Every structure is written in C-alpha cells, then in structure tokens.
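Progress narrative, work stream C.
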Amino acid sequence: MVSNLIYKTLLNVAAGGTMMAIDVEKATKIIEAMTSIDYQAQNDSKNEPKKGMMDHNILNKLLAQNKILTQQLEALTAQMTTLP
C-alpha cells in the first residue's frame, strides 16, 4: 500500500511544484488521471496475463504516465523561457 506522503509527492510533481499553487481545473485533471491509473492497476491485478503475453493495460498505464510527464516537462519548459 502506498503512503499518503508518496501520493502528496506524486501530486506535487505532477503539478510542477505544489498542488496548492495551481488552479482547480488543472488540479482536478491531475487527480482524475492519477486515480484512473490507480483504479486500473487495482482491477488489472485480478487479471493475470498469460506468460509471454504483453499486458495491454500495463502499456496503457505507462502511456498515461508518459503523457503526464510530457505535460509537466512542457509546463517546466514554458516557465523556464520566462526566466531572465
């Protein structure tokens, strides 16, 4: 089981700083994406893939996480361009 501190850290990383500094709409999107991934992980653990077969749900989870990371990098890049 994942501790609350880990969830807080993941949320802050996804927010590109702290969740308290972003608007409600962006925070809601981040939370929905993370809960969707967590929900899928809990349900997918019941359906063990056959040996040697690629689990498409794992691939979808990785793609969703990759999308979040890409969005974070884009936001960070945009912030860096405004620095002196």
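Work stream C, second folded protein:
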Amino acid sequence: MPTYISLLSFTDEGARKINKSSSRAAAFDQAAEKAGVHIVGQYWMFGKYDGLLIINAEQEQQALRCLTELVAAGNVRTHTMQAFDMKAFAAIVGK
C-alpha cells in the first residue's frame, strides 16, 4: 500500500486554536479511516514544520481527498510526498 508523508504547518487560525490540535487530529483519524486511508502516525514537532503525518492509501485519489479535506478545514497547510520502503525502491530502480 503506498505511503505518503505530509509535513504540516499551522495556519494563523490553527496556531490560535493550538489547544484543540489533538482533538482535531483524533477527528481526522476517524474521517481518514472511513475514507479507506490508514493513519500510520501523527506527530507534533517544533522547528520549520509543526507536524508530520504518515498515511497509507491504496489509491492516490484517496490520499488526495483526505489531505484536501484536512487543508480545507483551515488549520494546517501540507507539503506531501510519496515515500517508498527499501523493497519498493529496489523494484523501481532495478536493485
């Protein structure tokens, strides 16, 4: 199942409501699972990015829909990349 990693940055609105961040994350977990997207992990960070989200989705469209709904809520911006484990990467580059 493809893996996607999103680096998250709080918007001004998300920063103002930072105390609700963990409850928003729990709601996102539930919505994502209903959409067929598995949450591998959600992490809060300090530095250039405020969070890290790791998800698995069978189809790219599932991941995109889930992440666009997250962004549309107005609390975070995302920078998303597809990630490959060693086996998948070896298959792509021909070992």
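The longest helix spans residues 21-34. No further action is required on this item.
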